[in-house]
Amino acid sequence: MNRLPHPSLLPAVPAPAPRPAVRRPLDLRVHAQRIQIDELIVTDPRQVLAHARTAAHADPDTAALVGYSTTTPLTLPAAAALLCSLHTPDELADMGLRMVRHITRTTAATQHRDPVVLELSDAPEDTAR
Predict the structure, then answer these.
(1) pTM (2 decimals)?
(2) Which is nearest to 60 in space by CA: 86, 34, 80, 31?
(3) Digits of tens for pLDDT over the chain (129 positions)?
(4) Which terminus of the chain faces fewer neighbouring Cβ atoms within 10 Å, N or C?
């Protein structure tokens, strides 16, 4: 007669491997918006217009967005807007524009709360004096 060994004599059965936890993203219903504003002044209008004309020929689609077309003359505000859309503030300084102030405004809110607004502003020191 075949007898089964006592359970304490049987080899240990490994425990089943735990299933990996499925991580689902949490939907917190958070809405955030960040706006950065650079305020610049024109220090050399001729230089701004010259650089903007070159930029308008190199990127006509962006130039059209700021109001430039081949049938209308390039205005100084449109020229400054075009240069600002294509270049960094450091590059703009070499093109006849100088930064006066930089503002970063961040707004964040959940679905059930009023928005929290954080606004940071800096005005670079005037080293031209």
Answers:
(1) 0.58
(2) 86
(3) 677 777 777 677 777 777 777 777 777 778 888 888 878 889 999 999 999 999 998 988 888 888 887 777 888 988 998 998 899 888 998 899 988 888 888 888 887 778 888 888 886 555 444
(4) N
